[in-house]
Every structure is written in structure tokens, then in C-alpha cells.
Design a protein that fits this description.
single chain, 199 residues, mainly alpha, Cytochrome Bc1 Complex, Chain D, domain 2, 2 domains, 11 helices, 0% strand
Length: 199
């Protein structure tokens, strides 16, 4: 099983643990979050390089991503029917509670250093040619995320690199990201991951 397959199965299993929402769960959003934290770590601070951190992620992105899981053609890789059904168990109210909970958690901070990270910082803030604009334009000057555009700062480098590669291969669909990554070299992806990551 590939790393992409392991991640997607893990993510959907976590989502499946949540079940349908209730008023009590809305009052205490940490309760439904426990299902996610089994994989994503306490407060969403994942200890697994292939599982994304959710702590400090924008609430809008978390809700959008939960909805995106319902469309297997947009995800990496395509999940089987059982996993799609698990994702449908998350109600809109649960999605909102989860998003608010993880957005409140203290975010991990990037700690990259050295030439690789320095080159990545230049791409992130200035871009690298007409087809690779500055990532900061959409993701925020410090990679903090803006609205439904995700926080990247402090994420696992291995996860970031895997997602860039998935966008490049159109194994994960995101129109602008697909377009930008088609022009990226593997080295540029590694540089960006080094700049943004907390490993």
C-alpha cells in the first residue's frame, strides 16, 4: 500500500469514528474531536509525518476539506465506497464544531533552516516564474492560511511534499494548485517543504 493510500485510509477511518452530531457534542466540540485525534494527535498536533497537523488550521479550510472528502474524484488517492460512507456520517454541525475546535488550538511553527529552506522561502514569498506565483499570495505572508486556503506553516514536511506531488500528478484535484505544481521541479517542492515544515 502506498503512502498516499495509507494516509487516505487513515484519514477516512478517523472521520468515520465521529458519527452523527448531537447538541451535547456541539456544546463540547472536543468530544467529537476525539475521533480525529486518534490519528491527528492531541489537539490536532499529529506526531506522524504522513498525517497532517490540524492544530491552528483555518476553520474554513477544515470545513471545506471535510466536504471535499465526499467527492472521491478530488482526493488522493481515490478511496473505496466504505470510506466515502464513513465521511457522510459527519453532519454539518459536527463539521463546524470540529473546525472551530482545531482552529483554536495553538499552531505548530515552522523550524526549517539552511540553504534548502532559504530557497523555499524565496519561492514562497516571491514565486519562481510566471507559472509559479508567490505562495504567500493565497496562503498568507507567513503561511498562516487565509479563509478556505489552508495554513501550511508548521506542517510536516513529508506531508507537504506528498501533497505537492499529488497535485502535480492530479491525484488530488485543486485547479490552481494543479496548474502551479505542473511547473515545479522536485527540488522546488523539497525547498518549499523545508521552508514551511516543522519536522
Amino acid at each position: 500500500m502506498s503512502r498516499f493510500h495509507r494516509f487516505t485510509v487513515t484519514a477516512f477511518l478517523c472521520l468515520g469514528l465521529l458519527g452523527a452530531g448531537s447538541d451535547a457534542a456541539m456544546a463540547q466540540p472536543a468530544a467529537p474531536a476525539a475521533g480525529c485525534e486518534a490519528c491527528h494527535g492531541p489537539g490536532g498536533d499529529s506526531g506522524k509525518a504522513e498525517v497532517p497537523r490540524l492544530n491552528g488550521q483555518t476553520g474554513e479550510y477544515i470545513q471545506a476539506r471535510l466536504r471535499a472528502f465526499l467527492d472521491p474524484t478530488r482526493n488522493t488517492p481515490h478511496a473505496d465506497q466504505m470510506m466515502w460512507e464513513n465521511a457522510t456520517k459527519i453532519s454539518d454541525s459536527d463539521a463546524a464544531a470540529l473546525a472551530a475546535y482545531f482552529a483554536r488550538q495553538s499552531p505548530s511553527q515552522p523550524n526549517g533552516s539552511g540553504p534548502l529552506a532559504a530557497a523555499g522561502g524565496k519561492i514562497f514569498t516571491q514565486g519562481a516564474g510566471p507559472d509559479i506565483p508567490a505562495c504567500a499570495t493565497c496562503h498568507g505572508q507567513n503561511g498562516q492560511g487565509m479563509g478556505a486556503t489552508p495554513r501550511l506553516a508548521g506542517q510536516h514536511g513529508e506531508y507537504l511534499l506528498g501533497q505537492l506531488q499529488a497535485f502535480m500528478l492530479t491525484a488530488r484535484v485543486g485547479t490552481s494548485m494543479n496548474h502551479h505544481t505542473w511547473s515545479m521541479t522536485t527540488q522546488q517542492m523539497q525547498q518549499l517543504a523545508a521552508y514551511l515544515s516543522n519536522n
